[in-house]
Design a protein that fits this description.
Layout (H helix, E strand, L loop, with lengths): L13 E2 L10 E6 L2 E2 L16 E7 L5 E11 L2 E3 L5 E3 L5 E7 L2 H4 L2 E4 L4 E6 L12 E7 L8 E4 L1 E2 L2 E8 L5 E14 L2 E4 L4 E4 L4 E13 L5 E2 L8 E3 L2 E2 L17 E10 L4 E3 L8 E6 L3 E2 L3 E8 L6 E2 L15 E8 L3 H4 L4 E13 L6 E7 L2 H7 L7 E5 L5 E5 L6 E9 L2 E5 L5 E8 L2 E11 L4 E11 L2
Parallel strand pairs: 3-12, 14-26
Antiparallel strand pairs: 1-12, 2-7, 4-5, 4-8, 5-6, 8-11, 9-10, 10-16, 11-13, 14-19, 14-20, 15-18, 15-22, 16-17, 21-25, 22-23, 22-24, 24-27, 26-28, 29-30, 29-31, 29-37, 31-32, 32-33, 33-34, 34-35, 35-36, 36-37
Length: 465
Amino acid sequence: MKRFAILIGLAALAFTSCEKDQIKDVNRGHAIDFRVAAQSRAAETTTESLTTFYVTALDQDGSNYFTDVAFTKIEEYFSSSPSYFWPGDGSSLDFYAYAPSTVSLGADVTIDSDTQTLSEFSPAAEISEQKDFVSATATGSKADQNDGVALTFNHQLAQIEVKARNANEGYIYKVRGVRIAQPISKADFDFTTSQWSLDPSSKAVYQVQYDNDIILETYGQCIMREEGDNAMLIPQQLAPWDYEGDKTNMEKGAYISVYAQVTTKSGSRIYPKSAEMDYAWMAVPIDTKWEAGYKYVYTLDFTNGAGHSDPIDGPADEILGDPISFLVQVTPWNDKQMHDPIVGIWHINKVHFKKFDIDGTTVLEEWTMDSKEEIEDENNGLPYVYHEFEFINSTDFYYREAPDTQQFLMNTTLDGNKRVLDMGDGSVLAYLEFDPSEPEALTMVIKNIYSDCTEEIHLYYEKTK
C-alpha cells in the first residue's frame, strides 16, 4: 500500500473610536478615528464581525471630552457621527472603549475621572443569547490624526464549550442539551485594571436545549446548540458541587449537566427510569479557574459511567457505574492557530513515517523521505510537493492542488490543536495536529482498526507565498 495515498496538506482588535461632552480648543483637521483587531466564532467578537463600539474620552484635566459615543466601521477605520476633533493644543486624550452596547450587555457603564466601570453585569440565562464583552483603552493626540488611534480589544469573559464522548459500545447516549450550573453570575468590571469584582451571593444556571439528538461517538463531540455557540461567562474560581455530602446542592456548588437519554445497545432504557420523561439531566462537578480571554473546553467521558442526577431535580442519585470523568483543555482565546486560517502556497520538503502496533506503543517501522522525487514516487508519481491549503474555522477541511481549485476532503471537528477526521464508515480514526508555534510542521495520525497498526505521518512544509 502506498503510504502517501491519503496525504493531505494543511495550513492551517485593534479598533478605532471617539466622542464629545466638553468643548475645548479643537484642531479642525482630521476627525478622531480608530483602527481595530479581534477574533471569533458564532458568539465571539472579531475584527471582521465588529461594526460598532462605544467610546468615552477624558482630557488631561480629567473632564469628559465626550461620553459613550458610537464609532461605526467605515472601510478600515471606525468613525463617529457627528465627528469629534482633536484638541488644538496637542494635548492627549485617554480613551475607554467597549462593545457591545449597554442595552445588549444589560448593564450600565460609567466613565469619568472618578469611576470607570461596567456595573452589575450578568450573562444572559440562555447560552445562545450571551454576548462577548470586549474592551480597550488607549491614549492619543492630534499626532495620530493621519493613521487613527490603534485600539486593541481584549475579551473580558471566559468562553466555555462542552463536548462529550462514549467509547462503551454497550450503551447509547442521546444528548439534547447542556447546563452550566451555579457559577457566580453578577459582577462589576473595572476598565482601568481589567479586573472583575464578583458578587458571591449571586449564582445562576445557564443552559441550552435543542430538539435533535446528538448520539455520542468515541471522540469528543461538541454538544452545544451548534459548533461555536459557546457560553460567555464571568471569570472566576469555581467551587465544585459536593454530590456526596450535599446531594441537593444547598451550597450551590458548580457543575456541568447534560440533558440525555441512556439505553443499552439492545434498546433497554437505563436513564431516565421514569416512563413520563424521555430525557433527564446528568451532572458532574467542576472546579476550574476561569480567566478572561481564555476558552475552556470540557470533554465529558461517559465510557465508564454516567455520573449523578442533577440536584435541581432532587437529591442526587448515581446513574450508572463510576462518576463521569472529564478532560479540561484551556487555550488562549486569541490563539491565531485556533481561529484563523493559514492560507498560502506550500511545498512539502520532507515526510517522516512511523508505523506502530495497534496500541501505538511499539515502533514497527520508520523511514524518511526528503526529496521531491522520493515523495512523488511513493505517491504513484502524483505531485504532492505543491499544496495550497486552508485550515478553516468551520467543520469542513479543504485543500487545493492547483490555483482556483478547491476539493472537499471530509468533515472534521476541532479539538484543541487537532482536527479530528470523520472517515464516514468508522473504519479509520485519524486526526491532524499542528504546533501553533511551528505551523509548517503537521502531524497526521492514522489508526486503522482493520490493519492492526497505527501510523504517524509527519509533514514538513516550506511556505513559498
